[in-house]
Amino acid sequence: MATTAEIGRRGEDVAAAYLEARGYRILDRNVRFLREEVDLVAFQPTARDDGGMIVFVEVKARSGGGFGRPEDAVDAAKQRAIMRVAEAYLHERRLIPSPTRFDVVAVHFGRGEPRVEHFENAFGYFV
Fold first, then answer.
1. What's the 3-state SS for the chain?
2. 67-82, pLDDT tens digit by residue?
């Protein structure tokens, strides 16, 4: 039986591969600010090649349905924490005012291949 931490790490790996297959570039993983963390920071180029968007991604993985839908675990408190990490990340790297959004990737493990649901702009933008 896999531990919660192992399921989380596997979920992050699956989410990163999923995003990369869709043209995103993973910039960072497990970015921390104080005691808070965001799982993935990605860059999504635009089709017009006029820049792109920085995407902060919270990954939630589940191996069963007993704890509800993974995306529901990203509550208001978690959203505020992710926004604080994002603000620090952008400030530290002098990326303000880059277009930025917040996504959630839910990974469902079961029999066979993991099922991935990607919720773009799950809870807001920074511009």
1. CCCHHHHHHHHHHHHHHHHHHCCCEEEEEEEEECCEEEEEEEEEECCCCCCEEEEEEEEEEECCCCCCCHHHHCCHHHHHHHHHHHHHHHHHCCCCCCCEEEEEEEEECCCCCCEEEEECCCCCEEC
2. 667 677 788 899 999 9
Q: Name the residue range of residue 61's domain.
A: 4-126
pTM summary value: 0.89
100-108 and 115-119: which strand pairing? antiparallel
Give the chain's mean pLDDT.
88
What is the C-alpha radius of gyration for the chain, rounded to an integer number of angstroms? 14
Residue 121 corresponds to which tokens in the numbers above? 């702009």
Report in angstroms the alpha-carbon separations of 64 from 9, 114, 116.
16, 12, 14
Number of structural domains in the chain: 1
Question: Which of 37, 58, 49, 53 lies closest to 97, judged by CA?
Answer: 53
User: Which CATH number goes with the domain that contains 114?
Assistant: 3.40.1350.10
Give bridge partners of residue 25 from the DSSP assignment.
Answer: 43
